[in-house]
Write a structure and sequence with these properties.
This protein is an alpha+beta fold. It contains 15 helices and 28 strands. The chain has a domain of 163 residues. β18 and β19 form a beta hairpin. α1 packs antiparallel against α3 and α7 crosses α11. 54% of the residues are buried.
Length: 588
Amino acid sequence: MTSLALGAPAAVATAAAEDVSLAALLRCCVREIAGPRGQVGHEGPYVLLRVAGTRLRVRAHGGLALRFEGRPEWLEDGSWRPLSVDVLVRLVETELGTGLGEGNDEFAAQVAASRDAIAALVAARQEVPPPTDPWLASEQALVGGHPFHPSPKARGGADWLRYAPEAHASFPLRLLGVRNDVLAGEGDTGVLDELGQAPPGYSPLPAHPWQLELLAADLAAPLADGRLIDLGESARMAVPTSSVRTVYEPLIDRCLKFSLDVRITNCVRKNSWYELAGAVELSRRLEPVFLDLAAAFPGTRWLPEPGYRSAKLGTRLLEGLGVIVRVGPWSVCRPGVTPLLSGALAAGWQVAGDMPDTVRSPVTGAVRSGVPDVARWRAAGAVPGVAGPPMTGTVPGGVPTGIAGVSVGLAGLPTADPVRWWRAYVERVAPPVLDAYVSHGVVLEPHLQNVLIGVDADGLPVEAVFRDLEGTKLVAGRHDLSGVPDRVAEALAYDAASGWNRVVYCLMVNHLAEIAASLAGTGSTRELWAVAGDVLAKYAASRGWPRPLSDLLSGAPLPAKANLSVRWTRSADRSAGYVTVANPLATT
């Protein structure tokens, strides 16, 4: 992830968006174009690569995470010149249009739209302060998006900024009344009844206001004939989390996962009917699994999705109005533990000013300890020894920018003993993910937006909270799905090889590699990976060294998701393939 500042003027916001977009696309080129073709090398401090026969170079560190310093350059007429997003897009179009034998007339526009969105987000963050809740502030910190995606903030639809978590948005939900003869749902959704009073014969259904705008034409008939009624806005402001469509509703202390019929990054983010049913099915099946994991690995937590509610008004509205209820993180973390989004830690999360020393529960009013100094993120230099930004440069006029418009550093990782912090982090996150697969046949999806790390009063990781059952799967053949509807069962299952690839990619490449790079700064990550290898080896020994773990620890290449190829071929995200990358455990 990429760190971005608050309070950046328009010129810096534009420059920041260019830098972030350029870095993301260049990382994709290293991983998916030049790397597999053997067109990546090193010369002094530079990584060199070729795209469409053109030489590029950039200073880099961070191992797999590919953190860049200074401006990337391209060789033109024998001279190194500053590289721009537009130049790199043209090179990618030439390379992939030739190599894959097909063009993509949407690609350049998607990259440009993502760049424009980042600029808009940086500018918007000047106007609204972040949430006082440190967990919600961390949820809203991912301004740069996925660091290995060609258009990390591409977002469909209009008026999206008012609902964007990165712009510190908050808004009231709309409440619909669903006539009970057309009410759809499964599991425990009683908490939704606390959001508002519905007339006799109706049940309340919260709705995302953006989605209601998108579904206006489809809703006209059921609103006219009384199958649905409009109950107005909810009493409290909901806060969107990092996934955009999932919000925190403070009145009921729950997260609510809505459908949004717009493309966000790779996918149209709607709750398909089989995903609605699948979330409830998985919550039932995972309860004993997580009880076992928590017993074996203290500090393991998860956020169940115990029910969904919608309306039986045809498939489009069943899916479009479907809302999944998810437990909130404060309710599963023990007192004194503060949950923070792992993606924000990897990004070098920066907030405006200090976080509060205490956090008051929006439901009970109880006061809980806030984030201590060592678990906060501040401007570089505020804490001795913090890491520098992943990429630095200047905007016109010579203003030093970092990626974000200021030099951003990392104070959430303790400077006194970062190796101890890292060991605690890996111990909390990695063994339960691996054991879910090895011992229980469950594929968790522990990417940076699906894991919250709970820190104690000293800022030390003591809990890991896993969430979002959409990407959680069951290994085929290890679970009896005979009583589950065929389409639901199909969506719940992975074969063993696909499941392992997903686990290893999310855990090692997407997650731990990014945290390690942030912790190491411009230094080497070698010592950190030696510690990670020790943690993983102890777990593997406790399970008799199963083959997948033996291969992982022996340095077998790792799978990395091919986001650039997915966007170029306009494939569904679930069809994404992998490229292999070097395993950092091989160098320890």
